[in-house]
Specification:
- The complex is a heterodimer of chains A (397) and B (282).
- A 6-stranded mixed beta sheet of chain A has the order 6-7-8-3-9-10, sandwiched between helices.
- Chain A contains 17 helices and 16 strands.
- The radius of gyration of chain A is 27 Å and the shape is globular.
- Chain A starts with a strand and ends in a 7-residue tail after the last helix.
- In chain A, helix 7 packs across helix 8 and helix 14 runs antiparallel to helix 15.
- Chain B has one domain: MetI-like fold.
- Chain B has 282 residues and is mostly helical.
- In chain B, helix 1 packs across helix 4, helix 5 packs across helix 7 and helix 10 packs antiparallel against helix 11.
- Classes of the chains: A alpha/beta (397), B mainly alpha (282).
- At the A-B interface, helix 4, strand 6 and helix 6 of A face helix 8 and helix 9 of B.
Chain lengths: 397, 282
């Protein structure tokens, strides 16, 4: 069951939202609505669902409506029409009191400008949400300490935020959001104000935290690299509409519109593409050890290759057999492959990034084996494929 | 020339006569109480030996701000004492501070209300403009009509004159708190009241303190004018010197007022500065 269901959400800025909605229904463009009745369409018929534990990234340029959208999810901005169902309850129909309860218990937010309170210490900041929940001072300080430790700010509890760097201030913002143990974390361009190195570091830490927490995260960004890195799924927004929703792979490999394609073109592929995305299915180039050197050589001749991977019955990778070794074995009349399997071959994990594969590929003409954590053989990556993908060959598949 | 003039003056006179007829007894009896409170405050300052008052003021100023201002305070008081206007100075302090207290008592809550609602702001603002631009002599007369000559009428006049900056700057300070701060508070489920107490007011404090400073300075200025309706104090010294063309006497009164003004101004300024420093040395 989806934890967040957004359906036909509209946000109109101006004094006559009803007229604008009607014009949208009649199929008029946003430009016409603005010029005819002076109403600005902020969000135009947004629908999507987010599963529990998912990191859902909303990405778009400034003015695309992404900040409006995330503020609708905790009603810092009231949508004009449509429904937002969180845990089965439509929050657009909630009273102020119910809404405050929801914000205290279920949803917290991290801001682009950090928005840490300058007159409160780091600890008081982290404990803020708990204070609003009405938790006793001792209890909330204990939880705030834990949250601060989680984001790596141990020892800074008694400082004022002004003494901290931007990255550290945002850690305070993150600790404040995590301390209330919400189910949903809204992150509004949380890392955009940080310089690139710190930003990268924070992304990594968020991913590590998420590994354990498995919170539902709505992450807003204008940076596609960041979106691809963090998102389980990504929604691309343009002028108040969602253009495409999909996994990073889907967005990269099959952009729905020219607009998305343009976006994707600028991405540094080596940082985004993983072994899993570009590997070939290993069916024709694998044999079992009991097959013997003759069969191995035969398969190689069939496929026109000079080496072949060997796996066991459980699909675990045993190693690689080279054509010349197989020939020797046949000459010596060996029945088994055991002796000629090369075990010290380079392997990569499915999530290994393209750029991390370069060093393994240089100079050698052997394919890379992709194996998962339990050493199951998943596929192979060829040198040629890597180069083609780097050159931007989306269409080559 | 216009033949027909709207008799606004007559109308207002009629209204005031009516109102004061019914209200005066109530107001005058309550003014007796207020008067005695201010008198008590004044007595506390006048009754002890001058040296003791100077020492206590010096210590308080030192604790609140720094030793330099404390030295200035003691020296200033010493001058007022030695030029023979000690009692008048104390009386002026008592009235100015009472006036400030009453102005803040009403001004800050009004400023908070104005900051919370645009409608309230639209109503309060023209009233403040009115209070600030109306020549003070215009409301000195009705004040006397309602409360009789003396310190209470002066207090009311002081309130009218000194309250607007407190209201304005409280309103401004709260509205100036960045949107992100308020959003952050709301995003964690803070009620309006929680946001106000825990976030907006502390962050608006420097601006509110500037309002307090303004309020004190204007209260002090008004106590001088209010001497004409029997407020006494240093204003009385100045007024008497004007009536008798005694330039020297006027200078004595004027000097004491200036010393008092500088002291009160620096005091409030330094208090807010010190608060900031304490925050930063955390």
């Amino acid at each position: 069951m989806a934890i967040i269901k957004v359906k036909n959400l509209y946000k109109i800025y101006g004094k006559h939202p009803d007229k604008a909605l009607k014009m949208l229904e009649e199929g008029h463009s946003k430009e016409k609505i603005l010029s005819d009745i002076g109403q600005t369409v902020g969000l135009n018929n947004i629908s999507f669902e987010v599963e529990p534990g998912e990191a859902f990234v909303v990405m778009g340029l400034s003015g695309s409506g992404k900040s409006t959208l995330i503020r609708c999810l905790n009603r810092l901005i009231d949508p004009t029409s449509g429904s937002i169902i969180i845990n089965g309850k439509d929050i657009t129909k909630m009273t102020k009191k119910e809404l405050n309860e929801l914000r205290r218990q279920k949803i917290s937010m991290v801001f682009q400008s950090f928005a840490v309170f300058p007159h409160k210490t780091v600890l008081e900041n982290a404990a803020y949400g708990l204070k609003i929940m009405g938790i006793s001072q001792g209890e909330r300080e204990k939880k705030a300490y834990e949250a601060l430790e989680m984001v790596g700010l141990k020892g800074w509890e008694d400082f004022l935020p002004s003494k901290l760097s931007g990255g550290m201030q945002q850690r305070v913002g993150l600790a404040r959001a995590l301390a209330t143990e919400p189910e949903i974390l809204l992150m509004d361009e949380a890392f955009s104000a940080l310089d690139p190195l710190i930003r990268k570091e924070m992304q990594t830490e968020l991913l590590e935290l998420q590994e354990n927490m498995k919170k539902t995260i709505i992450f807003i960004t204008h940076d596609l690299d960041e979106a691809l890195r963090i998102g389980d799924r990504i929604a691309l927004m343009k002028e108040g509409e969602i253009v495409q929703v999909g996994t990073p792979e889907e967005i990269m490999m099959s952009p729905a519109t020219d607009y998305v394609k343009k976006f994707v073109e600028d991405v540094d592929r080596s940082r985004v593409l993983t072994a899993e995305m570009i590997m070939k299915k290993p069916s024709t180039v694998v044999i079992y050890p009991k097959d013997g050197p003759r069969i191995a050589l035969h398969r190689m001749e069939e496929s026109g290759i000079s080496s072949i991977f060997v796996i066991d019955k459980q699909n675990c990778l045993l190693g690689l057999v080279m054509a010349e070794d197989a020939l020797h074995a046949i000459e010596k009349n060996e029945k088994s492959l055991e002796k000629i399997i090369r075990k010290d071959i380079p392997t990569v994990l499915p999530e290994t990034l393209l750029k991390e594969m370069f060093s393994l590929l240089t100079g050698k003409n052997l394919p890379l084996a992709v194996v998962d954590d339990s050493h199951k053989f998943k596929g192979i990556v060829l040198r040629g494929t890597v180069m083609a993908k780097l050159a931007g060959g989306i269409a080559s598949d | 020339m216009i033949e027909f003039v709207i008799p606004l003056a007559d109308w207002i006179n009629a209204i005031f006569e009516e109102v004061s007829f019914y209200l005066s007894p109530v107001l005058r009896s309550s003014s007796v109480l207020l008067e005695s409170i201010i008198k008590q405050f004044e007595n506390i300052l006048i009754w002890p030996p001058e040296v003791v008052v100077m020492a206590i003021v010096g210590i308080i100023v030192w604790k609140l701000t720094n030793y330099r201002l404390a030295i200035f305070a003691v020296l200033g008081f010493l001058i007022s004492y030695s030029i023979g206007v000690w009692e008048e100075t104390m009386s002026t302090i008592a009235l100015a501070l009472s006036g400030t207290a009453v102005s803040l008592l009403f001004g800050i809550p009004l400023g908070i209300i104005a900051s919370q609602s645009n409608v309230a702001e639209r109503i309060i603002r023209p009233v403040l403009d009115f209070m600030q631009t109306l020549p003070s002599f215009v409301y000195l007369i009705p004040a006397v009509m309602f409360f009789g000559m003396g310190k209470v009428a002066a207090l009311v006049a002081t309130m009218i004159f000194a309250m607007p900056p407190a209201v304005r700057l409280t309103n401004l300070g709260i509205r100036e708190v960045s949107k992100e701060m308020v959003e952050a508070a709301q995003a964690f489920g803070s009620s309006r009241w929680q946001t106000l107490i825990d976030i907006q007011l502390p962050l608006a404090l420097p601006t509110i303190m500037a309002g307090v400073n303004q309020c004190i300075m204007m209260a002090l200025a008004m106590t001088v004018i209010a001497s004409m309706i029997g407020a006494g104090g240093l204003g009385m010294v100045v007024l008497r010197s004007m009536q008798t063309l005694d330039i020297g006497m006027g200078a004595v009164g004027g000097l004491s007022i200036v010393i008092l003004a500088i002291l009160l101004d620096r005091l409030t300024e330094n208090i807010s500065k010190k608060q900031k420093e304490q925050k930063n040395t955390h």
